[in-house]
Amino acid sequence: MSGPARPIRVLLADDHHLVRTGFRVILEVEDDIEVVGEAADGERAVGMARALRPDVVLMDVEMPGVDGLAATRRISADADEPGGPAVLILTTFDRDDYLFAALRAGASGFLLKNGTPETLIEAIRVVARGDGLLAPELTRRVIATFARPGAATGGLAPEAALRDLTPREREVLVLIAGGASNAEIAAALHLGEATVKSHVSRVLAKLGLRDRVQAVVFAYEHGVVRPSG
Fold first, then answer.
1. Where are the chain's structural domains?
2. 59 vs 156 pLDDT, higher one
3. Which stretches make up the HTH luxR-type domain (predicted)?
């Protein structure tokens, strides 16, 4: 008989001590979450992520020295190895440059700093189990940015990867890019949620993507989806 599940190991990266303390207080009352360390800058966050192997790094963007974007890029590169941590960014809504730089750096999720403790806790659980997370407000911002006249898409998606998608998997990719949850995809395509989850997993595997956040960026940057369509 198996024992209790291992708690989600979280590393806090923020240059404000009071912020880190507040996050620790919120998270450590949860039985399934353990705060394993704190970092006050990006360089320290990278080193601690490598040493402690957390499941999730809760990452601020603006920090002295190596900022959260550069740290995310380095941690995400390490995450290509089995067991590497996912990065959950805490961002402000009015900085599109931060949002898109962090998306491209490989972050697995985004939260607004004015969110609730319940939202933070659930977001950590989501990215810890390998699912990407975009707040609905941020998904709309992604789509609005790519919908602007003259927005760069990075060209067509790799033809070999697209040919490997079935028609149903391509439909799922389009719905992911629109910010749909598994339940919403299931309703739209008249499928069970377990079937949708399998389709999502195959789409990510075939396109070489780690999570849904990367799928949103891929779809819009490579012209798979057009907001006007």
1. 8-133, 151-221
2. 59
3. 158-223
Of residues 181 and 18, which shows the higher confidence score? 18
The Cα 11–Cα 48 span in angstroms is 8
* pTM (predicted TM-score): 0.74
Please name the residues in contact with 10: beta carbons below 8 A apart, sequence gap of 6 or more. Answer: 27, 33, 34, 35, 36, 54, 55, 56, 57, 58, 124
Q: How confident is the model at residue 229 (pLDDT cuts 50, 70, 90)?
A: very low
Beta pairing partners, 11 = 37, 57
Using a pLDDT cut of 70, give the percent of the chain over it. Answer: 81
Q: Given the structure tokens 């002295």, which residue do they identify?
A: 64
Contact by Cβ (8 Å): 40, 63: yes
- Could you tell me the sign of the dihedral formed by the alpha carbons of 121, 126, 128, 132, in that order? negative
Query: Cα–Cα distance between 42 and 47 in angstroms, integer?
Result: 9
Summarize pLDDT for 147-156 with one digit per residue, the tens. Answer: 554 554 454 4
Sheet architecture: strand order including 33-39: 33-39, 8-13, 56-59, 86-91, 109-112
> What is the number of other CB atoms lying within 10 angstroms of the CB of residue 50?
13
When the candidates are 3.40.50.720, 3.40.50.12780, 3.10.100.10, 3.40.50.2300, the CATH number that belongs to 8-133 is 3.40.50.2300
